[in-house]
Amino acid sequence: MLTDAAPRPLPGAPRVAPPPGATDSHAHAFGPFATYPPGPSSYPVPETPADRYLAMLDAVGLSRGVLVQPGPYAQDHTVLVEGLRAAGGRLAGIGVARPDVSDGTLYRLAEAGVRGLRFIEPRSPSASAPPGSVGAAALEAFAPRLADLGWHAQLWAGAADCARWGTMLAERGVPVVFDHLAQPDVGAGVDAPAFREVRALVEAGVAWVKIPVCRVGTAANGFAEARPFHDALLEANPDRLLWASDWPFVRLDDRVPDVGELLDLFRSWTPGPEWERILVRNPARLYGFPELGAA
């Protein structure tokens, strides 16, 4: 296994505090390695257990978060489930499973706070899927089971595959969440046919999109490459957007951003009412977080 011994520093607070109930909709937990060593990985894995993630949320004023099962743990959800149970309702989860998973396993994950399954497709013909991931071809078999559980599918893929599989899931009544701005072709721009199809699914309310910027733009450029896609999706349907940090930023090497600064950037790109909607109301509805003040 590849591990990264350097701890992720806690970020600085954003200039404007997030509203109560604000949620980070995408992060990963790894370790502690002495108890839960990760399996094979194509990237160095940082030791960032769930309690460190909660400390990160506290540092930037976020109330809630979503832990996504990372590839190095494959279908072993122990770290994810223990993190959810220890968080006192602050966290929801997204799992990874093959089609041969038992119903009992899925029900146990649901009881722990898992709300969907993630699927990954390579974003280019020359790329390969990360070890431990499950490809989008499994979506066909999983669609009825996701519907029965009231879960959604989370898909990390290029925009063309997002449009293809998102359309299939919409026809089967299964919500879909696209990772990383639906991974658009930056060079082709917002008018590329694949991204227009993604935007149409969002506008129709049948697809959601997580809008972290670190896999689309570059920190050195202020993530400006991501701005047109952010704006296009915001115009299409702000009720279907989810803010996400992508902490602890695996595979970004020395380009690890600061979550407080990412929140400030999101605030600067997003009008006031939509800022609160995307940070608070949208994730509460999708992940089933209780209303603020509810017992």
Automatic annotation (TrEMBL):
Alphabetized SUPFAM superfamilies for the sequence: Metallo-dependent hydrolases
Domain of life of the organism encoding this protein: Bacteria
Domain Amidohydrolase-related per the UniProt entry, residue ranges: 24-289
Entries under InterPro entries matching the protein: Amidohydro-rel, Aro_Compnd_Degr_Hydrolases, Metal_Hydrolase
Annotated Gene3D superfamilies: Metal-dependent hydrolases (3.20.20.140)
Pro residues composition bias: residue spans: 8-21, 35-45
Residues covered by region (Disordered): 1-45
Protein name stated in the entry: Amidohydrolase family protein
Record organism: Plantactinospora sonchi
